[in-house]
Amino acid sequence: MKPEAVTPKDRFNSKWGFVISCIGSSVGMANIWMFPYRIGEFGGFAFLIPYLVFTVLIGFSGVVGEMAFGRAMQSGPLGAFRKAFKIKGLPLGTAAGLIPVIGSLGIAVGYSVIIGWILKYLADSVTGNIVNESVPAEVFAGLSQDFGSVPWHMLGLVLTLICMSFGIAKGIEKINKILMPSFFVLFLFLAVRVAFLDGSTEGYLYLFQPDWSAMAEPRTWVYAMGQAFFSLSVAGSGTVVYGSYLKSDTDVISSARYVAFFDTVAALLAGLVIIPAVFAYGMDPDSGPGLLFITIPSVIRSIPFGGLFAFLLFLAVLFAGTTSLINLLESPVEALQSNLGWGRLPSLILVGAATAGAGLFVEGDLLSPWMDSISIYIIPLGALLAGIAMFWICGRAFARNAVQLGRIRTLGRWFEPMTRYVFCGVALLVYILGIFYGGIG
């Protein structure tokens, strides 16, 4: 079977529109509230070495493969898996394709709740409550209780769906072209501002002072692998969908290179903003939502012009979160459009209603176990199945031709070992170790 010819439909207008959209899907909460903490926890600068190793390995295998898989099959995961399984006459292709779609929708349910939190904090930064009146721990406790953020949660979801309603070129591509450059500019400005805070040096030491002994610890490599894997958004869903909207003259290898590079830059920028600010005011760094929604707002209250700092920070975080949520929702939307023949608006309404309905019931204590369950049991399984479908079931020639499409230089001999064995092996390890450690992403 040969990769399908690209058919005229709503798709990305340019390579850079596609690349920036993929960067938008990758840059998210894992970069902002997890990566800075992980660097300090696992050896400072020493952690960056295994992280970069896995970023390169996964970027040039998994990310490349998912981009090419979607483009070759001209479909998101549901259609792509079905077509791949048909090559070998295998059943259950549609069932296998449902796994990454369910994973994408499941994460979107939780992500939409978090977008609501970000909107609330952004509003408080505009009114001044975040600096003058509210106690961050109390605000977050109220938001994170059962049904604690319904209005903000629904507002964030509706705004995201409106952005998506304009389609691929006029909606997703244009939104990402605005939001992602803005994210980088805002975080760069904040990083420069934080550098002038008294006491910020301790934060830089926490981030970058190497503890080489950490590299001898297996857990350092395990969590570096998990951080790279989840940060690059290999899940057999969103990148496959975006790949299906990609033109045939685009080089997916160079596209994946840019995605991996800017995703890493985003993570480092987040670290350069958050950790030095935390240390400048004598607070302990933490991971997860507490770092962004309790610790940082507490720091902001002491920073000169803290309201402006808060506004820029949460605006940038909102941009990153929204572009990620768009990608997560696009997978089930595309599945309804391509496989049931639905229009885009009805598909968005159904997916939005399902996301909102489920999201209402995961607000509160259920949110964390919900997100953990999806990320541990479904996301890496979807990525593994996509790797098996693309690199094993479709076969060597198909995979090579799909990736070679739009590329001038011929793929080297590295391609098959890197994709068939390294990526599929890494995806399997992430799945097993994620269960063993209770989550590594």
Write the layout of secondary structure elements.
Layout: H1 15-26, H2 29-41, H3 45-73, H4 77-87, H5 93-127, H6 129-132, H7 136-143, H8 150-164, H9 168-195, H10 201-208, H11 218-231, H12 238-244, H13 252-280, H14 289-300, H15 306-340, H16 344-362, H17 367-393, H18 396-404, H19 415-437
Helix pairs in contact: 1-9, 1-12, 1-13, 1-15, 2-11, 2-13, 3-4, 3-11, 3-12, 3-13, 3-17, 3-19, 4-5, 4-17, 5-8, 5-15, 5-16, 5-17, 8-15, 8-16, 9-13, 9-15, 10-13, 11-19, 12-15, 15-16, 17-19
Structure, described:
- This protein is an all-alpha fold and 441 residues long.
- Helix 3 runs parallel beside helix 11.
- It is globular.
- It has one domain: Orthogonal Bundle (Hydantoin permease).
- The longest helix has 35 residues.
What descriptors fit this protein?
441 residues; mainly alpha; Hydantoin permease; 19 helices; 77% helix; globular
pLDDT < 50 runs, ≥5 residues: none
Give the distance, in angstroms, between the N- and C-terminal Cα atoms.
36 Å
What is the CATH architecture annotation?
Orthogonal Bundle
CATH class group:
Mainly Alpha
Overall number of strands:
0
Alpha-carbon Rg, integer: 21 Å
- Number of separate domains: 1
The DSSP helix count reads: 19
CATH fold-level name: Hydantoin permease
Strand residue content: under 5%
Broad structural category: mainly alpha
**Largest sheet data:** none
Fraction of residues in helix: over 70%
Q: Secondary-structure element sequence?
A: HHHHHHHHHHHHHHHHHHH
Average pLDDT number: 92
Shape: globular
